Amino acid sequence: MKNPYMPKVAEIVEVRNETPDVKTFCIGLKDFDFNYKPGQFVELSSFGFGEIPVSITSTPTRKKGFIELSIKNVGRVTNILHEAKTGDSVGIRGPFGNGFPVNTLRGKDILFIGGGIGLAPLRSFINYIIDRRNKFGSVYVLYGARTYADMVFKNEYENWRKHFEVHLTIDKEDKNWNGNVGFVNQLLKKTTIDVKNIDKTYAIICGPEIMMKFVINDLKNTGFDDNNIILSLERVMKCGIGKCGHCNIGDKYVCIDGPVFSYADIKDKWK
């Protein structure tokens, strides 16, 4: 019987610095049978130190044989991973979770709202839509970070602007930044979304929970229905398969029922 807790050994083939405390790792999967959807995650191990859940930020519509994982240095395991180099081995379990409801969203207008490293899982779906552009309606990308230095995927914004309406902001003034200053929810009023036909637009949000709650409040005031607000949540997902109970929200497990939820399904449990 296959052990679901046993990771497969993979190799780091590239490391990119995104911010002072975020790196994107390209993980080679040449010996893997690995199919995933935007919004899913993996359990990534540093052998001898531990395992962490990480959203997949690459997209399945592009080059096969690897995945990209963007990791913020926040603790013991991530600190060890940030010291890893090209050619080092890591462990991979997954993919896990339900991913974004791609089929439901075909033909719809989509509003992406990301905060900080929360742009990582959104990037997977953003680039998926670029590769399937005629399958979706109008797309809006709103992204905010504390400072310009904290913005991830900086080299991709101009390409996104060729396909979508993109608005960026930082929390406070910065000498390296001449764009919007303020919290990401304030960018809503800058979009060209047709509020009279808001029922055809779906909002997809990922970021710090306090940021998401402010964004949801503004979306509700704009007229969004709870079913049209989609969240990608982060929890301490230890096992990834709904056995350990570390990631439950009420009767929901983020690792198997999520990490993607509609606000309608989670609002009474997510406090």
Description of the molecule:
The protein has two domains: 8-96, Beta Barrel (Elongation Factor Tu (Ef-tu), domain 3); 102-232, Rossmann fold. It has a seven-stranded mixed β-sheet, with helices on both faces. A six-stranded antiparallel β-sheet has the order 4-3-6-1-2-5. The mean pLDDT is 93. Helix 5 (209-222) links the parallel strand 11 (201-206) and strand 12 (229-232). The protein is an alpha/beta fold. The protein is globular and about 55 Å long. It has helices spanning 76-82, 102-105, 119-131, 157-161, 209-222, 263-266; strands at 8-19, 22-28, 41-46, 50-55, 66-72, 89-96, 109-115, 139-145, 165-170, 180-181, 201-206, 229-232, 248-249, 252-253, 260-262.
What distinguishing features does this structure have?
6 helices; alpha/beta; 2 domains; Elongation Factor Tu (Ef-tu), domain 3; Rossmann fold; 271 residues; 7-stranded mixed sheet
Distance between the termini: 39 Å
What's the total helix number? 6
Q: Unreliable runs, pLDDT <50, ≥5 residues?
A: none
Derived structural class: alpha/beta
Tell me which CATH architecture of the largest domain applies here: 3-Layer(aba) Sandwich
Please state the overall shape, judged from the principal axes of the Cα atoms.
Answer: globular
Helix content: 10-25%
Number-wise, the strands total 15
Cα radius of gyration in angstroms: 18 Å
Q: Which CATH class of the largest domain applies here?
A: Alpha Beta
For the largest beta sheet, what order do the strands appear in spatially? 10-9-8-7-11-12-15
Q: How many separate domains make up the residues?
A: 2
The CATH superfamily of the largest domain bears the name Nucleotide-binding domain of ferredoxin-NADP reductase (FNR) module
**Biggest β-sheet: count, sense, barrel?**
7 strands, mixed
User: What's the overall average pLDDT, rounded?
Assistant: 93
| SS strand fraction | 25-35%
Order of helices and strands: EEEEEHEHEHEHEEEHEEEEH
Question: What fold name stands as the CATH topology of the largest domain?
Answer: Rossmann fold
